[in-house]
């Protein structure tokens, strides 16, 4: 089904949301995004990884049109229509029809996503059959054709062109009586079922049959030459094919889109695939042009003389086209859209006429089919240089820059800069061409820097281009001048919004001073029609945004007073939104509000620039930043805090980001907070941060107090959060039974409140406790559930950690390959989201695997940078583990001195943590080092002490972690046996 969906528009990106909706409809899987990724992976295995490409905001099938039967079919049909020789035409059409091996989208034709495409292909097939039949008639192949068309006519009895071809074939095969009888049956069918008579063309053919002089169809007129562009059309192959397909089923198609997007170029390329076409260029007409004046312009383009007479120009033009078969391209309609809309219905009274218009807004007449010309696809930030050139925008830039600056070429050094330029100009072809023309004097790096003043840079278009297309400002001036005063007001006020907004936000920001809130929706709709506002439909409703160039232009239309007022209104709106969201981020609506704030990230950052509202907004966003792992952003935003609550959170964020912080000051920061709930929450957060990266005793004190305060407040969420951290603390201290009880109670409370972040936290502790107990299936289940819950919420640092936890379990089970795969997955996700702690956890796991397989240098290379990173924190947990691993690697390499030093440091760090299992691990490492220096008794004593310490925690060393201990004990046994054998030998000698 995924393959079928991508084949609806091969080469074009289908958004992730659209794919999920089309594949599952209302019955969504538990994790739609993850499930879609799984299906994509399966499809890649089936058809090839390089064909199914991820490109924001979704996926595309990266194939050329001629690699797909439907594309090849359309291409052959187009070649045939341009051919003038009937033999060549028939051969091409026969090849096209030969590609059909069943129904279009067989098995999926009834799916909503495929219904239109399937019907379009079926219609194209019939049109090609009609063309094929007429070519065969011109070749004199009458008898065979009459037989071949019989079944097709019976399946489609109301297609008059197909029927006419069979009537002619019967007549020329000497079967005129059958032809007349066939016509009679059609006439009865039309009258009984539709109350209609046959069309004029079929009626005229009937009269010719009665007279016995029905001719074969005339040879098509040679196509009328169109203006030939001097440059190649780049990045539009799929668009050309799609529009030609639409013209096969719709007689009026309007290409819309913003200025400079390439509507005219696309229309001309589409028209080149049609037998008879004419271009009516409207850009030069005055805005006051009447419908009669427009009809005169069209008649002149069609070489139609008025011949005098009393009829109006519109009627004369419609009459002259009555028997014509042609495609009429009406270009640049936006400034005369009303007379065009009045004229086109008259033109379409002629059954053989099709109209293709280009306009920055729809005509708004019956039967019109809109096709919005997209901007060229641009590479996402961070796209590898090798993949950048696949982008249509980059290919266009490279071609035009090479033409303007001989010697220019795309390389690994400039690929990202070129991609940035293309993104900054929104992928609009005209803007890309104007930018490329500046490479000769600026170079790519300087050009990218100067795009902040794009209207001064993007000038100097070709002298033979219309004035409105020679600069970016002229393109936008043309659109601006066509707007009403109210439309201009809404458009310029929207420039204050970052990355789009909802209708509610637009009504708030754009109303007042001449525009009523109730008017905004209608004005927005008109601006969308004029291709100046882009609307995207999301799960939270439509979002309205401006392209970057349009936004920059509109912002220049604001006077300073209006700009300041709008910024404050904007900040008030988004502060209120953030405060409302904060009240829903701890509970069952967490996912929806996280997604809402994610969408509004640009607006929220913009609103933080309002000094009057920044303190409120910062406080409202702290928990969101924490959940999303945006700790550095949170630390920066809270740095200037004057409020006690925000100052406490700032200290916590400093601890979590590794900035030197005295965790002993945390209780004083908490005590400065007066509101009881805020006091408990600040204490909890500082206790959480101290537990992870500060002094454990400080964290234990803070969490104990917060637990009591949440209990007094009857705050179940707060109690659950405090218990989840206390479970971690008790786990570290070796109080495993108490840790288990806290974690289970925490999980139960989080289940009651519906907070999935909390479920992940409690589940993580239960997973680690199961791992310590050697119950690897249970540990796997907890961590896998945590990964799924975190992925649903988009908590990517948590997802990364859960994958690495699963990697640890695979390591304990002895599956090193699987362990490396899971740790690599965790590392990649952590690196992608800037999660340093997650990256450390994953790379330490990879080092554990490498060391256990004897790859000591690789393990040490992975571990040493993270030892330095861990030593910046007050907490010694991470450093203790890394020192132990480095010590074991040194011992196994035979470096006794380094092993002793590292394990001695590790023991000191482990004792500072208060974690008995960490102390036991360091003692086991020292045992191996002493064994290496020839002190087996000391080694044996240390092993026994470590075993007793582990047993005191109620968690002896599980089988998966016994590798180093078993190795050391085995060596001790060998030494013991050897010593005994030596003693026995000496005794025998004495005797």
UniProtKB/TrEMBL annotation:
Keywords: DNA-binding. Pfam families: BTAD, HTH_77, Trans_reg_C. InterPro entries: BTAD, HTH_77, OmpR/PhoB-type_DNA-bd, P-loop_NTPase, Sig_transdc_resp-reg_C-effctor, TPR-like_helical_dom_sf, WH-like_DNA-bd_sf. GO terms for molecular function: DNA binding. Residues 1-63 bind DNA. It comes from the Bacteria. This is Winged helix family transcriptional regulator. It comes from Amycolatopsis japonica.
């Amino acid at each position: 089904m995924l393959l079928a969906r991508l084949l609806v528009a091969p080469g074009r990106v289908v958004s992730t949301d659209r794919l999920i909706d089309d594949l599952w409809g209302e019955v969504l899987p538990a994790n739609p995004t993850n499930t879609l990724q799984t299906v994509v992976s399966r499809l890649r295995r089936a058809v090839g990884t390089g064909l199914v490409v991820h490109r924001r905001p979704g996926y595309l099938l990266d194939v050329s049109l001629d690699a797909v039967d439907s594309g090849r079919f359309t291409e052959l049909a187009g070649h045939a229509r341009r051919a003038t020789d009937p033999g060549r035409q028939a051969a091409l059409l026969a090849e096209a029809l030969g590609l059909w091996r069943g129904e279009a989208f067989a098995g999926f034709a009834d799916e909503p996503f495929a219904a239109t495409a399937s019907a379009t292909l079926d219609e194209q097939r019939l049109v090609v059959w009609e063309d094929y039949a007429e070519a065969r008639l011109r070749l004199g192949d009458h008898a065979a054709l009459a037989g071949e068309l019989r079944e097709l006519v019976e399946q489609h009895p109301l297609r008059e062109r197909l029927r006419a071809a069979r009537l002619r074939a019967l007549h020329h095969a000497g079967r005129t009586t059958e032809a007349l009888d066939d016509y009679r049956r059609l006439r009865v069918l039309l009258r009984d079922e539709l109350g209609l008579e046959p069309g004029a063309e079929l009626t005229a053919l009937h009269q010719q049959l009665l007279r016995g002089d029905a001719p074969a169809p005339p040879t098509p007129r040679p196509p009328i030459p169109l203006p030939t562009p001097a440059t190649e059309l780049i990045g539009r192959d799929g668009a050309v094919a799609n529009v030609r397909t639409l013209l096969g089923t719709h007689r009026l198609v309007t290409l819309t889109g913003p200025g400079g997007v390439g509507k005219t170029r696309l229309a001309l390329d589409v028209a080149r695939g049609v037998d008879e076409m004419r271009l009516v260029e409207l850009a030069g007409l005055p805005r006051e042009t009447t419908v009669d004046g427009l009809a005169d312009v069209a008649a002149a383009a069609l070489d139609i003389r008025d011949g005098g007479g009393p009829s109006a120009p519109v009627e004369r033009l419609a009459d002259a086209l009555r028997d014509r078969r042609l495609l009429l391209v009406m270009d640049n309609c936006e400034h005369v859209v009303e007379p065009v809309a009045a004229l086109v219905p008259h033109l379409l009274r002629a059954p053989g006429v099709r109209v293709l218009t280009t306009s920055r807004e729809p005509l708004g007449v019956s039967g019109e089919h809109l096709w919005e010309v997209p901007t060229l696809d641009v590479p996402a930030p961070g796209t590898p240089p090798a993949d950048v050139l696949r982008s249509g925008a980059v290919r266009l830039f490279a071609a035009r820059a090479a033409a303007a600056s001989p010697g220019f070429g795309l390389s690994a050094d400039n690929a990202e800069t070129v991609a940035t330029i293309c993104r900054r100009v929104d992928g609009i072809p005209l803007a890309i061409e104007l930018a490329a023309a500046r490479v000769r004097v600026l170079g790519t790096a300087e050009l990218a820097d100067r795009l902040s003043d794009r209207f001064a840079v993007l000038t100097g278009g070709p002298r033979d281009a219309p004035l409105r297309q020679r600069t970016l400002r002229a393109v936008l001036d043309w659109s601006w001048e066509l707007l009403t005063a109210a439309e201009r007001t809404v458009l310029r006020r929207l420039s204050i919004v970052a990355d789009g907004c909802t209708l509610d936000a637009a009504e708030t920001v754009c109303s007042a001073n001449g525009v009523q809130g109730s008017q905004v929706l209608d004005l927005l709709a008109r601006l969308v029609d004029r291709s100046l506002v882009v609307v995207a439909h999301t799960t939270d409703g439509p979002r309205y945004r401006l392209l970057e160039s349009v936004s920059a232009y509109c912002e220049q239309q604001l006077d300073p007073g209006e700009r300041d007022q709008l910024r404050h209104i904007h900040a008030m709106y988004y502060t209120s939104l953030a405060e409302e969201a904060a009240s829903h981020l701890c509970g069952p609506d967490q996912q929806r509000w996280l997604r809402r704030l994610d969408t509004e990230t640009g607006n929220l950052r913009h609103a933080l620039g309002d000094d009057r509202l920044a303190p409120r907004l910062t406080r409202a966003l702290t928990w969101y930043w924490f959940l999303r792992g945006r700790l550095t952003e949170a630390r920066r935003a809270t740095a200037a805090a004057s409020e006690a609550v925000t100052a406490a959170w700032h200290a916590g964020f400093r601890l979590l980001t590794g900035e030197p912080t005295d965790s002993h000051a945390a209780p004083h920061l908490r005590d400065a907070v007066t509101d009881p709930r805020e006091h408990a929450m600040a204490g909890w957060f500082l206790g959480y941060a101290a537990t992870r990266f500060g002094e454990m005793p400080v964290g234990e004190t803070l969490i104990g107090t917060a637990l009591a305060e949440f209990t007094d407040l009857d705050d179940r969420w707060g109690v659950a959060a405090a218990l989840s951290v206390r479970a971690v603390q008790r786990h570290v201290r070796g109080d495993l039974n108490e840790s288990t009880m806290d974690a289970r109670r925490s999980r139960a409370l989080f289940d009651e409140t519906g907070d999935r972040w909390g479920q992940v936290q409690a589940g993580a502790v239960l997973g680690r406790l199961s791992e310590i107990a050697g119950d690897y299936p249970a540990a796997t289940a907890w961590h896998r559930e945590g990964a799924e819950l975190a992925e649903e919420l988009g908590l990517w640092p948590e997802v990364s950690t859960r994958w690495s936890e699963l990697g640890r379990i695979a390591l304990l089970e002895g599956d090193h390959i699987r362990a490396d795969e899971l740790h690599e997955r965790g590392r990649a996700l952590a690196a992608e989201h800037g999660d340093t702690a997650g990256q450390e956890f994953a790379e330490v796991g990879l080092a554990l695997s490498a060391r256990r397989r004897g790859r000591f240098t690789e393990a040490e290379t992975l571990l040493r940078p993270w030892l330095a990173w861990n030593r910046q924190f007050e907490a010694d947990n991470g450093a203790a583990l890394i020192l132990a691993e480095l010590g074991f690697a040194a011992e196994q390499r035979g470096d006794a001195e380094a092993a002793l030093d590292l394990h001695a440091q590790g023991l000191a760090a482990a004792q500072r943590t208060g974690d008995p299992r960490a102390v036991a691990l360091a003692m086991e490492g020292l045992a191996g080092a002493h064994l290496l220096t020839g002190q087996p008794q000391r080694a044996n004593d240390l092993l026994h002490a470590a075993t007793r310490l582990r047993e005191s925690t109620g968690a002896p060393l599980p089988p998966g972690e016994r590798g180093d201990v078993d190795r050391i004990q085995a060596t001790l046994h060998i030494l013991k046996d050897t010593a005994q054998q030596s003693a026995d030998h000496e005794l025998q000698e004495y005797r």
